[in-house]
What does this fold into?
Amino acid sequence: MYTGLIGLAFEIAAIVLRLFSIVLIVYVVVSWLYAFDVVSRRNAFVGSVWEFCRRISDPVLRPLRRLIPPIAGVDLSVLVLLIVIGLVEARVLPWLYGVLTGRGPFL
It folds into this structure.
């Protein structure tokens, strides 16, 4: 879809956004596994995966958690962030690429 050096930068940005989405989904699934006692917290592999995902996602989720309170004990900040990432990937990146290359409308 993207061409040239600018296109390469946009492809890398899209890949990073997709990988971050995967990390967020893994983070949520592992936290659910912990919450419902499907996996023991003493499991070293699952613990290291959860810790990795937590360290990557918490700096981004922390400001959202201040704005969006948990509803019935459910943290919706991850869902909001996934929606924002999807919108950025589907709408903002192609628009910005069109603006920078002169192939798309400015507004």
The chain has one domain: 4-100. The chain has three helices and no strands. The mean pLDDT is 93. Residues 4-100 form one domain.
